[in-house]
Design a protein that fits this description.
This protein is an alpha/beta fold. The protein has two domains: 62 residues, Roll (2,3-Dihydroxybiphenyl 1,2-Dioxygenase, domain 1), CATH 3.10.180; 63 residues, Roll (2,3-Dihydroxybiphenyl 1,2-Dioxygenase, domain 1). It has two helices and eight strands, in the order βαββββαβββ. The strands form two sheets. Strands 1-4-3-2 form a four-stranded mixed beta sheet, covered by helices on one side. The N and C termini lie far apart (35 Å).
């Protein structure tokens, strides 16, 4: 059987939370992401065209909250320095220093959301990176 040819509509990565309202405030107020789909106990925020992050109440979702979170949400922005200054002003948890990864061609920093998911904000340092 052949894979369906229709284009995908959007992509959603789901994170699971014990305190959904607190996570919502962070993604809305700190990251400034707009709520795209409200499913009650699941809130889906638009990161950019086609990319979304879903915040799920772990008591109702398909998976459960876990202390170890081996996943990172990466958001590419045009001005990583502006975002770094903003993150410092907001005193986000576990804010790293700005760093350059020449092998990947990025300038970036990381921090944690309220329940420990790591977020990376990056800009490309060369075309095509």
């Amino acid at each position: 059987m052949k894979r369906p040819d229709a284009a995908n509509d959007l992509a959603i990565t789901f994170f699971y939370y014990r305190d959904l309202p607190r996570a919502m405030r962070f993604y809305e107020d700190i990251l400034g992401l707009p709520l795209a789909i409200d499913q009650g106990w699941s809130k889906i925020y638009r990161i950019c065209p086609g990319a979304h992050v879903g915040l799920v109440d772990e008591t109702k979702g398909m998976n459960k909250w876990a202390a170890v979170k081996p996943v990172q949400l990466c958001i590419r922005v045009p001005q990583v320095d502006d975002w770094y200054a903003y993150a410092q002003a907001k005193a986000v948890d576990n804010l790293s220093e700005l760093f350059v990864n020449d092998a990947l061609g990025i300038r970036a920093f990381v921090f944690d959301d309220p329940e420990g998911y790591q977020i990376e904000i990056q800009s490309a340092t060369r075309p095509g990176a």
